[in-house]
Design a protein that fits this description.
By secondary structure, the protein is mainly α. It contains 17 helices and no strands.
C-alpha cells in the first residue's frame, strides 16, 4: 500500500545527499512516511490475505457454499464506500492541509475495527461483516492519504525509488505482524486450541502492532500542501472540474482504466490467496501462514529492487513487465496440483506484487498535477477500490456458480491482467507529465 533507515542511501545522515528527495525533506521524514506502509501492511497480510479470510470461510461461515461469495461481498461493500468517498476526501484534504488529520481518523478506525474482529466466532457472520467493512474502509482511506505524500517527499525523477522504499518496508511490516501471529498460532495449536480460540488473538496482535508502528508517521511527517479554504460544496466542484477536464489528462485517464483491470486481478489474489491454498490445494492454517510469510519476503525484495530499476526502465515498461509476470503466475497456479509448483507460482506473485504496486503508485505521482496530489491519489484510490470490488467479486461469483471450483475462479480473474496489459500499451508517461505540468495550475 517505504524503507527503514537501512534502506536509505549510504550518506543518509545528510538531507538529500542521494538526490532522491525534494529540497527540505530529511531522510527521517521519509522513514516516518514509510513506517505507515510498515504499519498498515499487517492488516492486509493478516486480516485480508493470510488468516481472517480463511477463518471467515471455514469457521465463521462454516464452509457454506456461499461463504467465499459472502467474504468477497463484504470486501466489495467496504470498497464501494471508499470508491464513493475517496476523491472527495482527497479534494478536501488538499484544500485544508488535512491529510494527516484524516489519516489519523482512518488509522483509529482501522485499528478499532481490527480489534472488533476478535469478537467473531462460529456463526457470527453479520458481526464479522460489520467489522470487516469498517476496518477495510478505514484501511483503504488511509492507503490513499499516505500515498498522497509521496510527490511532496520524492524528487520527480526518483518517485519509483522512494515508492519502492515504502512498499518494501511495508512487506517487512507484514512479515512482523504475520510472524507474531504465526508464533501465537503454533503455540496455541500445540496445546490443542482451535481456530476459534487463536484467530481472535491474532486480530488483537495485528491491531496493536498497527497502532504502535504508525506512531512515527504522526510524529515526524510534515504537511506541506498550501492551505486553501473551500466554500461549502467546493470539494465537489473541484472533483467535477477534474473529471470534466479529464481529456487534458489523457494518459492519467487511460492509466486509471488500466489500474481498474490489472488491480482487479491483484486484489483477487490478495483477498483469496489463503482461501485458494486451503480449498484448492488442501493447505492447513499453519501452511497457509508460512506460504504468505514467504510471499511477503519476495514481495519486499521485488518492491525494493524494482524501485531502483523502474526509474531508469520507465514506469510504463516496468508495469508491463510485472503484468507479464502476473499472467505467468496465474497459469502456474491454475495448473498446480502439487505444492511445489504452487509455491513457485506464489513467489512469482510476491515479486510481481511488490514491483507492480510500487510502480503504479509512482506513475500516479508522476502524472498528478501539483497542488492536487491528494485529489488525484483519491482518483487512484477510486480506480483501485473499484477493481477491489470487481476482482474478488468475480472470483466469488465463479466459485458460487460452479459449486466451489476455485481453479476456474483463479483462471477467470487472471484475464484482468491480460486486459490491463492491452490498455497500458496506450499510456505515454512523458506526454502525461507534460499535461500535468501545463494544466495543473489552470485546473484549480
Amino acid at each position: 500500500m517505504p524503507k527503514n533507515t537501512a534502506s536509505l542511501p549510504p550518506s543518509a545522515g545528510e538531507p538529500n545527499s542521494a538526490g532522491a528527495l525534494r529540497p527540505g525533506v530529511r531522510p527521517r521524514e521519509v522513514w516516518a512516511w514509510a513506517m505507515y506502509d510498515f504499519a498498515n501492511s499487517g492488516y492486509t497480510t493478516v486480516v485480508i490475505t493470510a488468516i481472517f479470510s480463511a477463518y471467515f470461510v471455514g469457521v465463521v461461515a462454516g464452509k457454506s457454499a456461499w461463504a467465499t461469495f459472502a467474504w468477497t461481498a463484504a470486501l466489495s461493500l467496504s470498497y464501494l464506500f471508499n470508491l464513493l468517498s475517496a476523491p472527495l476526501l482527497g479534494a478536501w484534504a488538499d484544500a485544508h492541509r488535512g491529510k494527516k488529520k484524516l489519516l489519523a481518523l482512518s488509522t483509529a478506525g482501522c485499528v478499532l475495527g481490527t480489534a472488533g474482529l476478535a469478537l467473531s466466532g462460529p456463526g457470527d457472520v453479520a458481526l464479522a461483516i460489520v467489522f470487516i467493512v469498517i476496518s477495510n474502509f478505514c484501511f483503504a482511506t488511509g492507503e490513499n492519504l499516505i500515498a498522497a505524500f509521496l510527490p511532496e517527499l520524492a524528487d520527480e525523477d526518483n518517485l519509483g525509488k522512494v515508492s519502492g522504499w515504502g512498499w518494501s518496508l511495508g512487506y517487512v511490516g507484514g512479515l512482523v505482524s504475520l510472524g507474531a501471529c504465526l508464533a501465537w498460532v503454533t503455540w496455541a495449536e500445540a496445546r490443542g486450541d482451535t481456530a476459534a480460540q487463536f484467530v481472535p488473538v491474532c486480530m488483537l496482535i495485528t491491531a496493536l502492532l498497527f497502532a504502535l508502528s504508525s506512531a512515527p508517521t504522526f510524529l515526524f511527517l510534515r504537511e506541506r500542501s498550501t492551505l486553501k479554504p473551500l466554500a461549502e460544496g467546493r470539494a465537489w466542484r473541484r472533483l467535477r472540474a477534474t473529471l470534466q477536464h479529464a481529456r487534458q489528462y489523457r494518459d492519467m485517464r487511460r492509466f486509471m482504466l488500466c489500474i481498474v483491470f490489472y488491480q482487479a486481478g491483484i486484489q483477487a489474489v490478495i483477498a483469496l490467496a489463503a482461501i485458494y491454498a486451503e480449498q484448492a490445494m488442501g493447505f492447513s492454517t499453519t501452511e497457509s501462514i508460512m506460504l504468505i510469510f514467504l510471499v511477503n519476503i519476495t514481495a519486499a525484495l521485488g518492491a525494493f529492487g524494482f524501485g531502483y530499476w523502474q526509474d531508469r526502465l520507465g514506469y510504463v515498461r516496468a508495469i508491463a513487465l510485472t503484468l507479464a509476470g502476473w499472467i505467468a503466475m496465474i497459469v502456474l497456479a491454475w495448473a498446480a496440483t502439487t505444492p511445489p509448483l504452487f509455491w513457485v507460482a506464489a513467489n512469482i506473485a510476491g515479486l510481481c506484487l511488490g514491483a507492480s504496486q510500487s510502480a503504479g503508485r509512482a506513475l500516479v505521482g508522476y502524472l498528478a498535477p501539483a497542488e492536487r496530489h491528494a485529489e488525484f491519489f483519491g482518483l487512484w484510490g477510486l480506480a483501485v477500490k473499484f477493481s477491489s470490488i470487481l476482482g474478488p467479486l468475480t472470483y466469488g461469483v465463479v466459485t458460487w456458480a460452479t459449486d466451489g471450483n476455485h481453479r476456474l475462479a483463479i483462471l477467470a480473474t487472471g484475464t484482468y491482467f491480460v486486459v490491463g496489459l492491452l490498455v497500458l500499451s496506450g499510456v505515454d508517461a512523458a506526454r502525461g507529465r507534460r499535461a500535468a505540468l501545463a494544466n495543473g495550475a489552470a485546473s484549480d
